[in-house]
Amino acid sequence: MKEFPNGSKNKWTRILQKKWFFPSVYLLLAAFLLTGVVWYQNFESKLMEGMDDDSSELSDIDAANPFDDEEAESVVQQQETIKMPVTEDMQAEIVTKFFDYNDEQEEQEKGLNLYNNRYYQSTGIDIAADDGETFDVVASLSGTVEEVKEDPLLGHIVIMSHEKDVSTYYASLGEVDVKEGAKVSQGDKLGIAGKNLFSEESGNHVHFELRKDETQVNPEDFFNESIATLIEFEPAEVEDEAVEEEQEVPELDEADEEEELDEEDTESDDEDEADSEEEDALRDVSFYMTT
Hints:
alpha+beta, Glucose Permease (Domain IIA), two-stranded antiparallel sheet, 7 helices, 12 strands
């Protein structure tokens, strides 16, 4: 048998010369490319769906998170410590104290304001600079400016609201740098201390009040304390006790009452005798004048 070494070569040559060969190759390559494109698109779609699912889960977690922006701000405010309404570098002194019913008489006298020849109990503290000059008044706590007004006796007044019915009150301001509705951070400037007619002896000062549930409390008891301490404080009970103590009247037994009545009768008799003697004296004078 004869061998034809170029037979296989001639066979491929004949195949390549066929009209259908190259179109078939092109169709096969196109099928492979189309399959790859479809597979890639499906893979990318599944990948994006997975990312969307993760994002929705994160969104659900954020939505279910109880610490939203407002509550987060509330938590931050509750971590604040109550500061004096002056800058940290200022040398300040308390010239008028808060009048506390439970204090000794000497301390209570430091909580009295003299105005128009009459003493008034101080519901806050008066803060002044050591040198007597005016100074910047700053926010004791972060909060919202609820009211700005001017009083003929107390000067300019700024009232701020804080967490859980806590409020601060700034009076005797010579100038005010904030407006109602403004959001103020702790330490922001509210105005400048000045003088007023009600507390002339205090000179340039700021009258500062700290209130819980619209009841004034002693600011010195809460300086450098967390506002949470004031929120938990119940001033109404303390006030009621003070009022009860003030209204207490010692009871008298029967013997004391009889003794007191006897003293009143004696004083009444003495007054009657004095009046009688005075009438006799007037008669004598009249008699001497007529004679």
